[in-house]
Amino acid sequence: MYRSREVHKMDSRYQEKDPLFWNTWAQHTLKNALTLQKLNQNTAKNLILFLGDGMGIPTVTAARILKGQLSGQSGEETQLEMDKFPFVALSKTYNTNAQVADSAGTATAYLCGVKANEGTVGVSAAAVRSQCNTTQGNEVTSILRWAKEAGKSVGIVTTTRVNHATPSAAYAHCVDRDWFSDGEMPAEAVQAGCKDIARQLFENIPNIDVIMGGGRKYMFPKNQSDVEYPGDKKHFGTRKDGRNLVEEWTNRMKNKKAQYVWNKRELLSVNPNNVDYILGLFEPGDLPYNLERNTETDPSLTEMVELAIKILRKNPRGFYLLVEGGRIDHGHHEGKAKQALHEAVEMDRAIGRAGLITSIYDTMTVVTADHSHMFNFGGYTPRGNTIFGLAPMLSDVDQKPFTAILYGNGPGFKVINGLRENVSTLDYQGNNYQAQSAVPLRMETHGGEDVAVFAKGPMAHLLHGVHEQNYIPHVMAYAACIGQNRDHCMSSGGASSLSPALPSLAALLTLTRLLC
């Protein structure tokens, strides 16, 4: 196997020396691009948003290289699934009160269509973080709600807690992203009538069809032991109000085709044809990193996404699905680039799986990030250099080696006897190696540059150029004829003016060539 991969690399390198190789590839790409002149103006029956939390453009590039290297290639020439999307834009990520954004204010932008303050979810910029009395009257609704009100099925799938910043903006209105349960809220906020995010998950939007992720402990009474880790107090329930939100959900849904699951075995035993509603809470907190996942007990993001789509797509009116690769962000914050990049590769795998079980003719899929990170890679590394490897030269200042991957700030800053640590003495390719950083911080910070937006499917061409981040849900709602501007969906005779999704054989063949 290893030898065949090396032969493949050598063959590829040999081809690249011939100008015909590059010219042929470019001409093929040009022909595919010309097919895009006929725009897909169908009505989007289905909407999928893949959100890579913290997946800035350097992360996308590094994940591409990693994906290729995992299959024995040099990596640089590899295509991610998101790379195959025909339309790409840039998104400006700043919050109304922050040049460098956080995940809560950005989630409000790309889900509710309104920019907001950092640390707040589902409320406008008139709301002030942690001030409960600024909530009422400043709530803003999300595209998930717009889709539900239009009769579509809706779902949330995340590798973080289901009440974390990104998913919570889809259903909650909260002035503090950290109010996971009432156990994390100040007493005065509870007394003033503000609701914790876990409670809002079950109360604000009736019957969200699919909920999958972590966050189990926020659903159970304080000090109730966890089903998976019964002896570990840090995983005990956190709710001070004594409510068991899972039990309440189960009782409320008992006359519907609903199922609660908490491990991979239960998840994979679900027959999507027999289940209309699923609540999957697979960890007390966030799901484990994909590199550390127990493949027997913990589902992958791809496995969760596949089941979610198979349940949601049964609705003849279609669906809206939010998918978050949420632990890309956590890996970067910890300075653990290997964890972050493997999370990004897994999300790309989920994007590919979703593409196989949906149609580009009636499903709009958007892939983007909420913000970037202080992550980058460089150092004049040669072609095919392992993405986690060393640069090919020593520093001309301290005469020590350095890795290609570096952080602008974070926990990887280490000084030994007044000098930069010599990385060649460390396992710099280890899963939990913390890449060196320029400035010491316990947790690395977000980056402030624009992030990419990849789009395919109906009306995807409306995502182009440089946009404010809050533009994204407006485009998706327009494509699906939901939300505030639906006039374009109806002709004077009352029929839909957008084209129905009826692909021709020729169009299908064109699509096959485009995606290969």
From TrEMBL:
Family: Belongs to the alkaline phosphatase family.
Protein name per UniProt: Alkaline phosphatase
Organism expressing this protein natively: Salmo trutta
Database matches in SMART domains: alkPPc
GO molecular function per UniProt: alkaline phosphatase activity; metal ion binding
Membrane topology: Lipid-anchor; GPI-anchor
Annotated residues for binding of Mg(2+): D53, H164, T166, E324
Positions that bind Zn(2+): D53, D329, H333, D370, H371, H446
Quaternary structure and partners: Homodimer.
Active site residues according to the UniProt entry: S103
GO cellular component: plasma membrane; side of membrane
InterPro entries: Alkaline_phosphatase (IPR001952), Alkaline_phosphatase_AS (IPR018299), Alkaline_phosphatase_core_sf (IPR017850)
Keywords noted in UniProt: Cell membrane, Glycoprotein, GPI-anchor, Hydrolase, Lipoprotein, Magnesium, Membrane, Metal-binding, Zinc
Record-linked Gene3D superfamilies: Alkaline Phosphatase, subunit A
